[in-house]
Amino acid sequence: MRRATLPWLLACGWLVVPAGTASAQPDAQIRWPALGRGDLLLVRGTGVLPHLDSGVGLDADLVREPIVLFDRALGLERAAVATRLTTTVLYGVGLAGHSQLTLAVPLVWQEGEGRRVLTLDPADELPHGVAGDVRLDFLHSLTRECDGGCVVDAALASGVVVPTGDEGAFAGEAGFAAYLEAAVHGRVGPIALSGSWGIRVRRDAALSDVALGSELPLSAAVALELLDARLVLAAEAQALVGLRGGSSSPVIALFEARGRLGAHRQGEVALGLGAGLNDELRAPSIEAVLSVRYLPR
User: Fold this and answer.
1) Where are the beta strands (DSSP E) in the chain?
2) Is residue 60 within 8 Å of 290, Cβ to Cβ?
3) What CA–CA distances, in Å, run from 65 to 18, 69, 87, 122, 157?
4) Which of 19, 39, 59, 71 could form a disulfide with 88 if both were Cys (CB 3.0 to 4.6 A apart)?
C-alpha cells in the first residue's frame, strides 16, 4: 500500500468532498535547488560568488508518481500527480565575499488525476501548467583548513518561501514558509563527503490519511573528484522527516555526474538519476534531474 489511502467512504463512492472544502494539499516537490559553489543535486554547496558578481542556473527535475493514493474499493493505486516536471530558474549575487542571495522561480508542468481523487468532481482535474512557490535564499559561507591538508567547508543558509504556487494543484505551500539549514563539505584527496541538515517550517497540509507540516531535511553524499575536480561522480540521498504524528517522511537517492566547463570552470552541467527509497507520500518511483549553471570566478 503506497503513500496515502483513500477513506473507506470516499473510496466506496458514498462520500463526495465538495470542491473548495478539501484542506490545503502538500507540495509534491522535495528538492529545493540552490546556487552555491560545490552544490550537489541533494546537498547544497558552501561556496559563494565574489562580491556583487552574479550567477544564473536552470534546474529541470522530472519525477514519476510523487503523489499516489490507494483506492481500497477498487484495489488499485490512483495517481493524483503521475508525472511532474519542475523547471527552476535561479539567479544569485555575491555579497561581501562570504555571503550570497539567490532567487529561485519554479514553473511546473504535470499530469494526473489531481484533487478529483478526493472530491470525485471532474472539475478538479489537475492543471497542466502552474507556477510554483518563489524562494529567496541567503547563504553565509565559512571555510576551515585542518591538519594533514584536508579542507572543511561549512555554511549556514536561511530563506523564505513565498506562496505564489497553486497548493490546490500540489504545486505550492498553503502560506509563507521559512527554513534554516547547515551544510558541511570535507575533502581528503579526491574523496569528498558532504552533509546538510535543517528545518522547514510550514503550515499544515493534509492528503487523505496523511498529515504534513514542518519537516527536518537531512542529506548526505559521497563524491569522487576527477580531472582536477572537472568531473565529479556522486551518490547521495535526502530524507524529509515529518514532525507531526502521522506525517510522511519520504527518502530519495540519486547518482550524479557533474562536469565543470571552461578555462576557469565557470560553467557546470549535472545529470542525476534516482528514485524514492520508501513508499511515503512525495517519494517518486523514478527521478531524473538536469542542472545547468554559470558561476563566475
Assistant:
1) 54-71, 76-95, 99-111, 129-131, 134-145, 151-162, 177-188, 191-201, 205-207, 210-212, 215-226, 231-242, 251-261, 267-276, 286-294
2) yes
3) 25, 10, 17, 20, 30
4) 59
Cell for 146?
Answer: 585542518
Number of Cβ atoms within 10 Å of the Cβ of 205: 20
222-271 pLDDT per residue, tens: 999 998 888 999 999 999 999 887 678 899 999 999 998 865 558 899 99
Instruction: Report the distance separating Cα 95 and Cα 127, nearest Å.
Output: 39
52: alpha, beta or left? (left if phi > 0; alpha if psi -120 to 50): left
Q: Cell numbers 504556487 label which residue?
A: 165
37 DSSP assignment: B
Share of the chain above pLDDT 90, in %: 54
Q: Answer left, alpha or beta for residue 265, where phi above 0 means left and psi between -120 and 50 means alpha.
A: left
Amino acid present at 248: S
Could you give phi then psi for residue 230, rounded to 5 degrees? -75, -20
pLDDT digits (tens, 9 = 90+) for 79-99: 889 999 999 999 999 999 899
Place of cell 549535472: 270
- Could you give the CA distance from residue 145 to residue 151 in angstroms, rounded to a whole number? 5
- Output the nine-digit C-alpha cell for 265: 570552470
170 close to 25: Cβ distance less than 8 angstroms: yes
Would strands 191-201 and 129-131 be described as parallel, antiparallel, or unpaired? unpaired
Judge contact between 46 and 153, C-beta under 8 A: yes
User: What distance in Å separates the CA atoms of residue 220 and residue 185, rounded to the nearest whole number?
Assistant: 10
Candidates 51, 53, 46; CA nearest to 142 is 46
Residue 77 has pLDDT above 80, yes or no: no
